[in-house]
Amino acid sequence: MQEISYIKVDEKTKLDLLIDSIRSLTDEDFISLDTEFVRINTLFPILGLLQLRFKNETYLVDPVALNVKDLVRTLTETKAAVLIFSGDEDLEILVKIARDNGFASLLPQKVYDLQLLAAFDDFLYGKGLNAYVKELVGAELEKDCTRTDWLYRPLSENQLIYAALDVEYLEEMYKLLYKRIDEKRFSYFLAEMELKKADADIVYNPQTAYRQIKGAGLLKNDALTRLQYLCQKRLEFALKHDIALNHVITTGALCDVAKNSPLTLQGLASCGVKWGAIRQHGAMIIEWIKESLTLPERSDLPLPINYFAHKRELKDAFKRLKRYLEKCAHDAGIAPELLAAKKYVYDYFLKKYLNEVPYLEFSWRKNVVADINNLNLPKVER
Questions:
Q1: Per-residue pLDDT band at 373 (split at 50, 70, 90)
Q2: What pLDDT sits at residue 10?
Q3: Long-range contacts of the stretch 32-35 (C-beta < 8 A, 24+)
């Protein structure tokens, strides 16, 4: 086990001192931030530990023992740059606390995700923190507490060291990565971070939840009408009771349920609904299905996000666009996944059909793919 020093913040007096220290930071300082949370049975993550490091001190804040809202408020107001790594859920947690408490700002003004920053240097895209630390700093992280109950108390010394190491090297990594990236790519990174911050403020819309379901684009109007209703009821129930969506109706089973409309518990299982969800909510799901069968078929529903992913006639166009985007990424010196990921390819055709602006023609990406219209990609039809 590695030796590492940290300050455990589990008393209000210690928390107040930490908040005062953060308030004293300037725009030349950095705060490394990470969270440990539990999200097994709930829709929203439950914060189990908040790790901070600045001025060569590491703080492990216990949100089970303390109310951390004033700390989060201070973080949203800090002048320092906040460093995270693959921090989508970290940002989601901060935003929820800030929104629940009516803070003026939901996130710090400057937030830098180092995994994303590295992608603008085409460096180790999508790898875990350990890979980046090893490559950049030459250190190894403890990995034996990856799966642990962060709400159980007391936390073990191994858990605390594991958590502290997650913020130990972030500032050093940032400074090394910053030296590798030119001004233009860093400006692209900053623009993408603004998009990432906006995405962290998740807006749950039960009416359009069906659009995200894999396979929804293959359904005919009658089944899509039922899918829309089932997804709406599922999300409304999950929001009301803070329960994981899969614990209501298994996500991978939704399209089969919408197509086949099973009215028995065994029928739900045959469609792929897990028995745990059936035991708890089977009768309610069947009532939802019965209700969905009484609905008039709708042809006016907004298209699912993946609608054009299933069009065979666009297969060659997908490949041509993907190759072009990979070349653009190579020429720009960034990871190809920042442009050529499937979600951007499919979004391009959907948004063109809807006469909306695709991701690829928005923000910094429009500069990198400037000649995309010269590809003469086919116009799409429903």
A1: confident
A2: 97
A3: 32/82, 32/83, 32/84, 32/167, 32/168, 32/170, 32/171, 33/75, 33/82, 33/83, 33/84, 33/87, 33/90, 33/167, 34/84, 34/85, 34/87, 34/90, 34/163, 34/166, 34/167, 35/89, 35/90, 35/93
Give start and end residues of each alpha helix (H) in 125-248. Answer: 129-136, 157-168, 170-180, 183-200, 221-241
Cβ 365 vs Cβ 341: under 8 Å: no
Nearest residue to 107 via CA among 145, 137, 150, 78: 78
pLDDT digits (tens, 9 = 90+) for 139-162: 888 766 667 899 999 999 999 999
Classified as helix, coil or strand, 49 is strand
Query: What's the one-letter identity of residue 253?
Result: A
Phi, psi (deg, nearest 5) at residue 273 = -70, 130
Q: Report which secondary-structure segment, H or E, holds 269.
A: helix 265-270
Contact in structure between 47 and 163 (CB atoms under 8 Å): no
357-368, pLDDT tens digit by residue? 999 999 999 999
